[in-house]
Design goal:
Blueprint (H helix, E strand, L loop, with lengths): L1 H20 L17 E6 L15 E8 L4 E9 L7 E3 L1 E6 L13 E2 L8 E3 L4 E3 L3 E5 L4 E8 L8 E2 L6 E5 L12 E3 L2 E2 L1 E7 L5 E7 L1 H4 L11 H10 L7 E7 L14 H10 L4 E7 L2 H9 L9 H16 L4 E5 L16 H16 L5 E3 L1 H5 L22 H9 L8
Parallel strand pairs: 16-17, 16-18, 18-19, 19-20
Antiparallel strand pairs: 1-15, 2-10, 2-12, 3-8, 3-9, 3-15, 4-7, 5-6, 5-10, 11-14, 12-13
């Protein structure tokens, strides 16, 4: 016993000698904050696989207009080759403020975009890149124009199909051109997936996560009449409140539990929500395609129950809350009989919709809800959209319907 005690003493003395010989660790001095230390996402376009007809670029400039929500004095762009089949070469990139609509820019605002200090970048398949900060005063609710030059054939390009916005494609490197007369056009987002803005420490991002009801299918192209656009106008114009941006993470045809158009919502959640900087709030508006598409596309093996949809919702809540994000759910609007989509609506899918909405209205699992169903349903036939809000397909709202959805969002949720 005495020998054991003597060994402990010797070991203790040896440890003390080692501790005295090694300098104490000192935390590095904190770096003073700068205008580019704090970011919020001010615009988003969720990436999805290319749909037919495929777009392949070669020796072309692609110009895209994005209306941001919150403004700032520095801005940066995010580009994605997530669904590309080869390295994607960006030969030149410019960013400017829009002027006069269409592809026209304000030349005085034109800036070269760099990536790690270089004017070109190659994005590996499956990857994304973030640009260097661009010094430019960007007003809230303004149009930001991003022009990308692709000197080599791109192969398949990552896109967002139902963008409800015109994209311009012109030959050669015209990234600095004031306008692109005669450019070919599509209504898809290509490769550009987000814009971040420098912001105050109290600023937060509101991510709206959903399907075509969120992406705005049925609204007027280039009018910014999706319901998240209307919500952004309401939140940006509030006075005496912390700044909030609103970004649209919608993919037309998206589902919660199964892939269809775009990765399913559970699969893309980390990418489209948790990876965005400074997210404070999440609005979930997804599920209508889980209920209708199995019948509408003859997919009996992908039928889901209301309980399975609710279980998926609970997963989103837990994952968001663990990151300090408040979660609000939107009730699913009615989609009563759709003649051009037989099987999408049925008594069974309607019963599931009612059950899911009842859970959204009564559960305490989330931090609040928005009653979109009540905002746009027909007063007499409650399983149908009101005629004045129907885009014509009996599923997606029109401009007035999206405005009604935004107007139904309680501002107290963001207090």
């Amino acid at each position: 016993m005495r020998l054991f005690a003597d060994n402990l003493v010797r070991l203790g003395l040896a440890a003390l000698v080692v501790m005295l010989a090694v300098p104490a660790w000192t935390a590095p001095a904190s770096r003073p904050s700068t205008a580019t230390d704090i970011w919020v996402t001010t615009w988003e376009s969720s990436p999805e696989m290319p749909r037919a007809p495929a777009i392949v670029l070669a020796g072309q400039t692609v110009r895209q207009v994005a209306r941001v929500s919150l403004g700032g004095i520095y801005i940066r762009a995010r580009l994605s080759n997530e669904f590309g089949d080869r390295p994607l070469v960006i030969g030149a990139a410019h960013l400017a403020l829009g002027a006069g609509g269409g592809s026209t820019i304000d030349p005085s605002s034109d800036r070269t975009i760099t990536f790690s200090g270089q004017p070109t970048v190659t994005i590996p398949p499956g990857a994304a890149v973030l640009s260097d900060p661009v010094s430019l005063t960007v007003p809230s609710l303004s149009n930001v124009v991003v022009s990308l030059y692709f000197p080599q054939p791109t192969g398949a390009v990552t896109e967002n199909f139902f963008s409800m916005q015109t994209t311009y494609m012109a030959p050669g490197d015209q990234t600095a051109a004031g306008t692109l007369p005669g450019a070919a056009t599509v209504t898809r987002r290509l490769i550009l997936t987000a814009l971040d803005i420098s912001a105050a420490t109290s600023a937060r991002t509101v991510v709206v996560f959903g399907d075509s009801l969120t992406s705005g299918f049925g609204s007027t192209v280039d009018a910014n009449h999706r319901w998240p656009d209307f919500l952004a106008e309401k939140l940006v114009n509030r006075s005496g409140r912390p700044a909030l941006s609103v970004v649209n993470a919608g993919i037309g045809g998206n589902r919660l539990l199964h892939d269809f158009f775009g990765p399913n919502a559970l699969a893309r959640f980390d990418r489209d929500v948790l990876a965005q900087p400074s997210v404070g709030y999440l609005i979930v508006q997804v599920g209508i395609n889980d209920l209708g598409l199995p019948g509408g596309r003859n997919l009996p093996d992908e039928e889901v129950t209301a309980d399975e949809v609710i279980a998926g919702y609970k997963q989103l809540i837990q994952r968001a809350n663990s990151h300090g994000i408040k979660v609000f759910f939107g009730t699913i609007p009615p989609f009563g009989p759709i003649p051009q989509r037989p099987g999408f609506y049925s008594d069974a899918s309607e019963a599931k919709r009612v059950a899911v909405n009842n859970w959204i209205r009564t559960t305490r699992d989330h931090q609040g809800y928005i009653d979109f169903e009540a905002a746009v349903r027909d007063a007499k036939t409650r399983n149908r959209l009101a005629g004045q809000y129907d885009s014509g397909d009996h599923l997606d709202p029109n401009d007035a319907g999206f405005k009604a959805m935004a107007d139904s969002v309680p501002m107290r949720l963001f207090e």
